[in-house]
Amino acid sequence: MGVVAYGVTADERPLLERALGKEYDLRCLDLVLNRDTAATAEGRRVVCSSVNDVLDKEVLRILADGGTEFVTQRATGYNNIDLAAARALGLTVARVSWYSPYAVAEFAWALALAVNRRIPRAVARTRDFDFRLDGLMGRDFHGRTAGILGTGKIGTAFARIAAGFGMRLLGYDVTPSDGCRALGVKYVERDRLFAESDLLSLHAPLMPDTHHIVDAPALALMKDDAILINTSRGGLVDAHALVENLLAGRLLGVGLDVYEEEVGVFFFDKSLEVMTDDTLARLMTFGNVLVTSHQGYFSQDAVGQIVETTARNIADYLAGRTSDNTLVPSGAGETGR
């Protein structure tokens, strides 16, 4: 049976080949799946998509017309997939509903520590044999307030680390977590979370209600010397408003592993091209902003679990089974090809 995986990194490829290569006719591509590349899936019954692929109605129709029956996303988020179109076309869709929350939580803390203690600037200086400490002063996290927006598995893991630093813990979520409460997290209204956090870390899914949840009014509530970390979804932050605040000298630091317009940019070498995204280019000019390319999930443990779950999703589909990973079950709609 033919399986094609898109957006496959060099580190991910051997894991996919080990999990799927022996049993299926696997083809791994580093291409982003979109309208221009969807035809490469022709004749492949299963498509393994990545988080930056574009699976809109047109792409899904091309896949269905080419013989694809099942799309399994190697990610938890699925806002890039038009589920209604998939259902109408008779496509089955699944995702990875869970993988190591520690990968993203630990990476969020890596960003927070690097921004706070000016590590990127320090490394750049010492490589030039400049060993001055001027401008490198950070702060203790101990005793300060950590705000966690979204307290699911990843937010809870982040809170557990924050507790280890001896921080005061505030949380905001429409569904409070007993695990977070046990760690000492106090749930507050969203505005209070923004106003009192010395470190605010975002761990909410991207939905209509959370799109630009960190907008100009929210940023105005934050302390001038607060740190903002986003390892969830780029659309949670209004990047234009963030730039305006940084230009005004507000915020001690920002760590972004995600960006609203990252599709077609993150995961690619753009070093020989002109950066046409003015907002991203402007963010990169601030010395107190650290941008990484959506690598928070990218640990051996997490990627291994993602691949294992993807293999299980395919096996479940072939056996006619559904699971917590199923977004659109088999036979959910009429094919309209």
TrEMBL record:
Q: Is the keyword Protein transport assigned to this protein?
A: no
What Pfam families would the database entry show?
Answer: 2-Hacid_dh, 2-Hacid_dh_C
Q: Which Gene Ontology molecular function entries are recorded, alphabetically?
A: D-lactate dehydrogenase (NAD+) activity; NAD binding
InterPro entries to which the protein is assigned, alphabetical: D-isomer_2_OHA_DH_cat_dom (IPR006139), D-isomer_DH_CS (IPR029753), D-isomer_DH_CS1 (IPR029752), D-isomer_DH_NAD-bd (IPR006140), D-LDH-like (IPR058205), NAD(P)-bd_dom_sf (IPR036291)
Q: Which domain of life is it from?
A: Bacteria
PROSITE patterns assigned to the protein according to its UniProt record, in alphabetical order: D_2_HYDROXYACID_DH_1 (PS00065), D_2_HYDROXYACID_DH_3 (PS00671)
Residues in D-isomer specific 2-hydroxyacid dehydrogenase NAD-binding domain copies: 110-296
- Keyword 4Fe-4S carried by entry: no
Ordered alphabetically, the record's keywords are: NAD, Oxidoreductase
D-isomer specific 2-hydroxyacid dehydrogenase catalytic domain: which residues? 8-326
Family, similarity comment = Belongs to the D-isomer specific 2-hydroxyacid dehydrogenase family.
**Annotated protein name in UniProt:** Hydroxyacid dehydrogenase
Origin species, per record, is: Streptomyces albireticuli
Q: What is the lineage of its organism?
A: Bacteria, Bacillati, Actinomycetota, Actinomycetes, Kitasatosporales
